[in-house]
Specification:
The chain is mainly beta. 0% of the residues lie in helices and 52% in strands.
């Protein structure tokens, strides 16, 4: 059974940093593209970032470029989303998502709240 477990969310002030983790079990992380999706209250889900299984290349939505960094530790089967210079508009539930041509796995989500 494939499981994705997120951690690291919390309540921080604007300008602060957080690091989210997503640990995968039941599937080898280096064989799949994996990323983060977020959903703010009353809004649709928004793709944030992903990392490729083939070359480790990363991509980000424009609103987080230069502030967020996605990395992968294959030995720990874990991906990390380092979030710096957080803004109130980053407030959302962040979901880890791993997908391929025949599968689509999600974590339970972790809340990130940025507020003064």
């Amino acid at each position: 059974q494939v499981q994705l477990v997120e951690s690291g969310g919390g309540l921080v002030q604007p300008g602060a940093s957080l690091r989210l983790s997503c640990t995968v079990s039941g599937f080898s992380l280096d064989m799949s593209t994996i990323g983060w999706i977020r959903q703010a209250p009353g809004k649709e889900r928004e793709w944030v970032s992903c990392i490729s299984s083939s070359d480790g290349g990363t991509d980000y939505t424009d609103s987080v470029k230069g502030r967020f960094t996605l990395s992968r530790d294959n030995a720990k089967n874990t991906v990390y989303l380092q979030m710096n210079s957080l803004k109130p508009e980053d407030t959302a539930v962040y979901y880890c998502n791993m997908w391929g041509s025949s599968y689509d796995y999600w974590g339970q989500g972790t809340q990130v709240t940025v507020s003064s």
